[in-house]
Amino acid sequence: MHILLTNDDGIYAPGIASLTSALLPVAQITVVAPDRERSATGHAITMHKPLRAEEVQLEVEGGRGKGWAVSGTPSDCVKMAVKVLLPEPPDLIISGINRGPNLGTDILYSGTVSAAIEGILFDIPSLAVSLTTFTPSSFTTAAQVTKIIVDQVKNRSLPPRTLLNINIPPLPLQELQGIKVTKLGFREYENIFEERLDPWGKVYYWMRGDAVDRDDDLEDIDTAAVKKGFVSVTPVQFDLTNYALLEEVKNWKLSLGNLKGE
Amino acid sequence: MHILLTNDDGIYAPGIASLTSALLPVAQITVVAPDRERSATGHAITMHKPLRAEEVQLEVEGGRGKGWAVSGTPSDCVKMAVKVLLPEPPDLIISGINRGPNLGTDILYSGTVSAAIEGILFDIPSLAVSLTTFTPSSFTTAAQVTKIIVDQVKNRSLPPRTLLNINIPPLPLQELQGIKVTKLGFREYENIFEERLDPWGKVYYWMRGDAVDRDDDLEDIDTAAVKKGFVSVTPVQFDLTNYALLEEVKNWKLSLGNLKGE
Q1: For residue A201, what are the CA distances in angstroms to A196, A197, A204, B161?
Q2: What is the pLDDT of residues B60-118, one digit of tens each?
Q3: Which among B79, B114, B191 is the nearest to A207, CB-wise?
């Protein structure tokens, strides 16, 4: 089994090293990841400047990973791995382990999840994995959890155009409550723009945001599952059509008639 | 009615000027858009460097628009407009008119659509509008079409968490076939990485991609509608949960038992 690893924290981030280390005994691993942190890049791709890929050796616990550091976004990494760097497409793509949660509406902004979406656009089974804390923490347990999920999904075929978005609370193994299959919740960010003056008296802003979970009381929601100490596994697809509204909008009978003078 | 306009082609792009010009007679317009082109930025937001907003006057046909040029992405622009720049949230957000289509899976990469998603995350009705050509073209007809759609949706309330993604073919008004309510199609990009050598003999790549429409034969698909000369209107939401797969994944009975040694 050949697994492609990527992330949005950069190729030298501890999350991807732990994952490499956990998976090296059971699979061929290639790491193709951004050469620096590219968080919150969403599904950005690089079209207006050239890309570079530098071959690297990654020393990890228990072995050595190999791969490429790419001067682009997580999505660029997956495209480039599949189209240029690997002799043939991998059997599985795992994006992570991300430092910080990718829950609910977070995933709209997430470079981690976008890389996995890029994977399923190529029809390659893909997982996105996140450790739900920004506090520096060990990724070892999360990597082990990822490995057993990989073992369990290996023999099931994920349907086309579907990835699993996995969020793991930063708890010791024995305190994890189990694995819950969930829906995406709705996180609202209370964005605050902190106004400052530069040395020349001109205003600039730092944007920050605190997540407020809106659907937290609903059952089977990823945000709630993680708070209760469960590993959250959400099947994710990429069709944003609002099917429920199709017929209603058809009934509006939008027309160019007036404009055309008919 | 107060309309916030934004885009991903930059505040001085012709698409947003045409739209400003078409809407000035019927609404109060504020433009808050990136200070330069930010296409294919997806839903990227700017957290690791500060943002600036410079007040600008926009001379457009038939009047003068006012607004701010922001040093960030389309999503940053919407956040900053709502949270800092405007005294109160706008009644409607329109992102566009984009130069180039945002059809099917395009919208995953689209800064234009992401800005509109940002709008509905704030519970503000939002539209994303694109002219489906990269050839330099007049946006006048597309702006008129947008205006009549705005007129027609003004009195309907779009349900929460839903935007309309509008794609307008670059045809003279009388050649437009009408307005079709559509689902998102599946566009595959045949990415090509063009390999070159820099002056020092090191390899770099230009990524380009040609869209191949996979679902083109299906009825009511946005890509097909536009090819037939229709204005395409797709209701779009942002919940990426694959509901169809929830029960199946639950039946996998993913478990930490083995790992915990239970």
Answers
A1: 9, 5, 9, 39
A2: 988 888 899 999 999 999 999 999 999 999 999 999 999 999 999 989 889 999 999 99
A3: B79
Count how many domains chain B has: 1
Mean pLDDT within A37-51: 79
Residue B236's CATH number: 3.40.1210.10
CB A187 within 8 A of CB A106: yes
Q: Is residue B210 part of a domain?
A: no
The answer to the question of residue B194 being in a domain is no
Tokens of A89: 């497409």
Instruction: Round to whole Å and give the CA distance between B95 and B9.
Output: 10
CB contact under 8 A, A249 and B259: no
Alpha carbons within 13 A on the beta-carbon side of A171: 16
For residue B204, the surrounding DSSP H or E stretch is: strand B203-213
**Cβ-based neighbour number of residue A218 at 10 Å:** 14
Which residues of chain A have a CB within 8 Å of the CB of B149? 254
Distance CA A33, CA A77 (A): 6
| Chain A: residue whose CA lies nearest to B182 | A246
Here the tokens at position B30 are 């504020």
CB contact under 8 A, A152 and B255: yes
* B46 interaction partners in chain A (CB closer than 8 Å): 40, 207
> Which of A43, A53, A76 lies at the smallest CB-CB distance from B43?
A43
A229: tokens are: 């100490």
Do the domain assignments include residue B106?
A: yes
Residue type, B108: L
Range of the domain at B54: 2-186+218-260
Query: What interface predicted TM-score (ipTM) does this complex get?
Result: 0.89
Cis, bond preceding B168 (omega within 30 deg of 0): no
The Cα of B193 is separated from the nearest Cα of chain A by a number of Å equal to 7
> Hunting for tokens 């907003």 — which residue is that?
B53
Unique residue bearing structure tokens 């600008």: B56
* Residue B29 belongs to some domain of the structure: yes
Q: What is the DSSP letter of A116?
A: H
